[in-house]
Design goal:
The chain is α/β, with parallel strands linked by helices. It contains 17 helices and 13 strands.
């Protein structure tokens, strides 16, 4: 462990229990082994009524604080500057690093790092700052950036997220699930953006299966929660049993993963499912789904357990995957064993923290007024786009759907048709 301690201000956009926010806390805890002490901050107006990032931070021993977020960019910059007193660098685990650029990192007086765990690159990112991304395809597409691009896969704490780390039987008993139940679990933010389509398809897939052993457990909350619960109520009524259960947000979702027979999800939630040694069905945002198994493993991982592919009958495609898994306990065991081995090898928290510490080292080494001034061109283009009344060249660069489809890991060939 390094004896020279450095302090990092980690800026979050919100304090909800999202995968990226949990990843930020986990990495903040783990980089302490490399000499970095972190303060995690997030806007007070994003603090949910229930469990939040503050609970996760307390669990990991990371200091976290809320702040009142001003409306204007430069007022926000001043607030971040006050919070960054004593810090050596700022990590914008955020949709924008602009407030940090104009505040605590002004004229290169502190190192500045940005993480993008979204599925597309924001061209408003200052080109001279070190960038952390979570997907293999973005690493390849951004090769040659002046500030450098480092792949730090959304980490999983494989020492805590492990088979048998919770009382699996107790979790299932509390939900009234029979010993022979086949439990499908989704742990996710229940938001209309990206997430809701996969959850809704899963609800309808359970109805199509018509297997009385199969139950779907959904953990999480968000703006789509009420609508999805209503969809589930309809399915339960038609099936004449409680096949779909919503358990709300969980500060510690490990029992939900550990209690599952199959995990469904995308991004970091999918990765955690693998760490628990569970068969994984990856959910895209527009109806696509695939079982995480050879020969598709590398392609699915490169896409960070996600796809934009649109499928006309996503519920039918998903039902096909689930029917096979529900019927074959031996296959579930085989896939689960392979899942755990893959997680340990590819996104364990210690390895990802070491990689992030290297990015921090580089940010401290290269921060300078010259590099800061070099990025003023980006600020001028942002201002010009705003004055022009549109985003123009600064629109988010969405991945080309056809190009993505050409490298999709598993075609939708069972019951769904690609549009």
């Amino acid at each position: 462990m390094s004896t020279r301690r450095r302090r990092v201000l980690v800026q979050l956009d919100n304090l909800e229990l999202g995968g990226a926010q949990i990843n930020a806390v986990q990495l903040s805890a783990a980089v302490a082994e490399h000499g970095y002490d972190s303060l995690v901050i997030g806007p007070a107006d994003t603090l949910p009524a229930g469990p939040s990032v503050l609970d996760v931070s307390a669990d990991y021993g990371v200091t976290a604080r809320t702040y009142e977020r001003p409306a204007s960019l430069f007022a926000h910059a001043r607030v971040l500057s006050r919070l960054a007193r004593g810090a050596h660098l700022v990590h914008a685990f955020s949709t924008s690093e602009r407030a940090a650029y104009w505040g605590p990192a002004l004229l290169g007086r502190r190192g500045l790092v940005r993480t993008i765990y979204e599925m597309s690159f924001d061209p408003r990112t200052h080109p001279s700052i070190p960038l952390v991304i979570g997907t293999g395809y973005l690493r390849d597409e951004l090769a040659g950036r002046p500030g450098g691009t480092t792949l730090v896969s959304p980490p999983v704490d494989t020492s805590r997220d492990a088979p048998g780390s919770t009382d699996r039987a107790a979790f299932r008993r509390e939900l009234g699930l029979a010993d022979d139940a086949v439990v499908l679990t989704i742990v996710s933010r229940l938001t209309e953006e990206m997430k809701a389509r996969g959850v809704e398809d899963a609800i309808h897939a359970v109805e199509r299966l018509g297997d009385p052993r199969v139950h779907l457990v959904v953990a999480g909350t968000g703006d789509a929660a009420a609508r999805l619960r209503a969809v589930a109520d309809g399915v339960n009524l038609r099936l004449g049993r409680t096949a779909v259960l919503f358990v709300g947000p969980l500060a510690d979702p490990r029992p939900a993963y550990d209690g599952a027979d199959v995990v469904l999800g995308m991004g970091s939630s999918a990765a955690r499912g693998l760490a628990f040694g569970k068969p994984l069905v990856v959910l895209g945002e527009r109806g696509w789904s695939a079982v995480f198994r050879e020969p598709y493993v590398d392609a699915i991982f490169r896409n960070s357990f996600w796809s934009p592919r649109e499928v006309a009958d996503g519920a039918g495609l998903l039902a096909g995957h689930l029917r096979t898994l529900a019927a074959d306990a031996a296959e579930r065991h085989r896939l689960g064993t392979a899942a755990r081995a893959f997680a340990e090898a590819n996104f364990g928290l210690p390895a990802m923290a070491e990689r992030l510490a290297g990015v921090y080292d580089e940010a401290l080494r290269t921060a300078s007024s010259r590099r800061w001034l070099r990025d003023l061109g980006t600020e001028r283009r942002i201002l010009a786009a705003k004055l022009g009344g549109g985003s123009g060249a600064l629109e988010w660069k969405q991945r080309d759907t056809e190009a993505v489809g050409a490298r999709e890991p598993e075609p939708a060939t069972t019951e769904g048709a690609v549009r």
